[in-house]
Design brief:
Strand order of the largest sheet: 2-1-3-4-5
Strand content: 5-15%
Number of strands: 5
Mean pLDDT: 92
Number of domains: 1
Largest sheet: 5 strands, parallel
Number of helices: 9
Structural class: alpha/beta
CATH architecture: 3-Layer(aba) Sandwich
Low-confidence stretches: none
CATH superfamily: Glucose-6-phosphate isomerase like protein, domain 1
Distance between the termini: 37 Å
């Protein structure tokens, strides 16, 4: 990716190179890890558990997108997915950050909402965001299943979660990492729609 940025002055060639590189990154993802993630969400639906998605910055947007797609995209299924993105309530996030510190913005929400058997999905390219690590530690102590969507070397998050879906790319390549996480959102949602007996949206 770094070579692409320093050698391609032509936007057409840059676009071709970027798309090709993202394709390489996507092909490097372990499909067995994706399958475990999907199976975890299906099992959570079957037992009536809730899946909570968390992340910062671009990963916060991905958490919101997962919340939208898994809740609304499967809304006509006979058995619904209970999904909440904890990145979406600005008042709650800023109140916790102001009163207790930003490192606690997800942990304190989980302390109110999380039940044993729920699922917490932490999305982080670096895998080292303190607020995500605190939230995952709390979730494991509460008896939840933890999932990490990571990139770069996976950081601390990849090692501490129950289920890891890792995007192998070089450190600092946030664009390709977040692109891949969004593809995972649409891949997972598409499979879950099929598993729920839904055809393609019209």
């Amino acid at each position: 990716m770094e070579a692409l940025q320093t050698t391609c002055a032509n936007p057409v060639e840059f676009a071709k190179g970027y798309v090709a590189y993202v394709g390489e990154v996507l092909r490097a993802i372990d499909p067995a890890e994706v399958a475990r993630f999907i199976e975890t969400l299906l099992a959570a639906r079957d037992r009536g558990a809730t899946a909570y998605f968390i992340g910062n910055g671009g990963s916060a947007a991905t958490a919101s997108h997962f919340g939208n797609d898994l809740t609304i995209g499967t809304r006509t299924a006979e058995k619904h997915f209970r999904v909440v993105s904890l990145t979406d309530n600005v008042a709650v996030i800023t109140a916790i950050a102001n009163d207790f510190g930003y490192d606690e913005v997800f942990e304190r929400q989980l302390n109110t909402l999380l039940e044993p058997g729920d699922v917490v999905v932490a999305i982080s390219a670096s895998g080292n965001s303190p607020n995500l690590l605190r939230a995952v530690t709390f979730a494991k102590g509460r008896g939840a299943t933890t999932v990490g969507l990571t990139a770069f070397d996976g950081g601390k998050l990849r090692k501490m979660v129950d289920i890891s879906v890792h995007v192998p790319c070089s450190k600092g390549e946030y664009g390709p990492a977040e692109d891949a996480h969004m593809v995972l959102d649409h891949l997972v949602t598409a499979y879950l729609m099929q598993a729920a007996g839904m055809g393609p949206r019209r």
